[in-house]
Amino acid sequence: MRKGKYFSQKTRDHWKRPAPRVRLRAEADAKLKRVFASIGIPDSKPFKPDPFQLEALEAIEQADCLVTAPTGSGKTWIAEQAIARHLEKGMKSWYASPLKALSNAKYTEFSNLFGAENVGILTGDRKENSEAPIIVGTTEILRNQLYDAMHQGMSLSADFVILDEAHFLGDEDRGVVWEEILIYLPSRIPILMLSATIGNAHEIADWLSSIRLRPCVVVEEKKRPVPLYALFLHPSGRLMPLLSYGSSRGKAKLYRKVMAYENSKRSMRLATAGKLPPFGEILRVLRKYRLLPAIFFLKSRADCDKALALCSENRQFVEDRREIIHEKIELFSSQSPYISRHHQRWELENLAVAAHHSGQLPSWKLVIENLMTQGLLDAVFATSTVAAGVNFPARSVVFLNSDRFNGSEFKPLTPTEFHQMTGRAGRRGMDRIGFAVAVPGRFMDTRFIAKLTTSPPAEVLSQIRINFSMVLNLLLSHFPEQIKELLSRSFATYLMLKEKKASIYGEDQLFLWRDFVRHLHFLQSRGFVSEKGELTDDGKWASRLRIDQPLLVAEGLREDLLPDSDPALLAAVVAIFVSDRETDDRIHNKLIPKALLSVFLSLKKGLKSLAKEMAKNRFEVRPLSIKPAATMFAWATGRAWNVVCSTFEIEQGDMAMLVLRTADNLRHLVAVSDTFPKISNTAETAIRRILRDPVVTEYES
Description:
By secondary structure, the chain is an alpha/beta fold.
């Protein structure tokens, strides 16, 4: 272990204590001999595009194109080739992704590939080279540019649009953004959509063809680039096939020994209730059969963190990599001192294992992703969020749960989620075969996991819904009757018309319009829209507040409830409107400065009438909480990062997210400079105050 400034005495003492010993036999069923013999690195061959890649390139010359293919199959190559073609013709491309981290990664890749002078990035946090012929950004930024273009009576400054992770169209929280883009995007601009395998690709293509009046070609690739084999880890330490392959056509049948275990009334367990399994021993079994590196999917952040302490035996296998890992961490540490002092650095450097979840700092997760991609780690313990959008491959993925936490409750894995997670197993060009390992336990339904291995991909359904920001922005450029026609083009309407009988078509296709009218009437009652359906002066500047709670913030501006001369206080107040996590709001009075308490109480009193009226009309109203405000105020006034996180009992990843979302909302206050110049200037200063290391590091910026 490295001693010195990086690790506390408490940490050093912890690793001196012997861990409880649980020994697994590390055996393999005879049926696996042939499978394990196929493990290895495939022969190096010159790159040759797959037929589906060439088919997609041909399709986008004449039409829109939806490509659905397993994770890691080479969808990005299609995008790169298509962008290159447009660049050669002097045309502009827009590459939209759901995640800022993914956008940052693509920006780096494309800059290396096409030249930094040809690539720009727009994510809210970053705005660089925005006039470049290739723009990488988030889907929300693209949607907002479409709003602006419609308002100005112009067409989007792009000749080609790529929507990555297009299955997000069915995301409960953000799918509305994808659907809006597809509805608003001018038909002259061809679309390339890249998606994980989805069950109703042709249905989506038919919908797009109907509203864009140009064909949409579906290109499907169902074959994984690296074959997947499902395993079961018996609590004794014996690996065995999960399924009886070929024994039941098209159905998943458990291997007889797995079935015997499942049917046993007194089954062995790897861990007692409330305890984690012996991960060090599991790593020993996987290493013996060359199944590392592995991603372990666990049910919670806390379990991911606790798992590291159970891997102390792995230290003996890291000698050949320790110095390389150390040098890599030092390189990242030069951009952020918080990385060098991270409380899990010792495990990363000495055990080659890491925890990866949303509670971690973005910069720390970037270190882990970099080391894992380079093959320097043996295991990453992650929540299911790692499966979406991050290039994070391994030879094996290990499941300890057959459900996942969706933010509010645990729900069974969907086929799409399962295929995304197993898509990380088997690295193209590095593995001949990948493995999915099911580990029995309290939260594992082995039969269900077996079923998922052969389940068809889930269908993507519309998640469009009306919100006040959408209504305000559409009214900037459309009359209500024009908006009615726009909404009739939604995927939701298409699906309803397809499923229902002709006699009730008219009623069903108006469901979005009725909700639009409900929002419209409320905006009229509050003076943001005139009786003729046109935006008032207040409505025009309020439309620039493309945030979660635009009406409350707009009312705060109208009633002079937001502090316009103190950047720290403004950041604190704005944090109230972005915090949507259900957390314990209890906070000691001594942690709330008098100035902040005074502003908070005035804000709450001033917004009470609007909040009451919104609730009466069945609009969502989130309670105003002072804890995120106090947390943000401490950070904005210069308190140290670790002190803020510990004082206000917030995980570093959650704190980073609170800061980034607060900064994003403050940018929308900057945008109303014509009407509120003083608060706009204060918002700019507040952004600079809160966007500092470790939230934004030199490496990331």
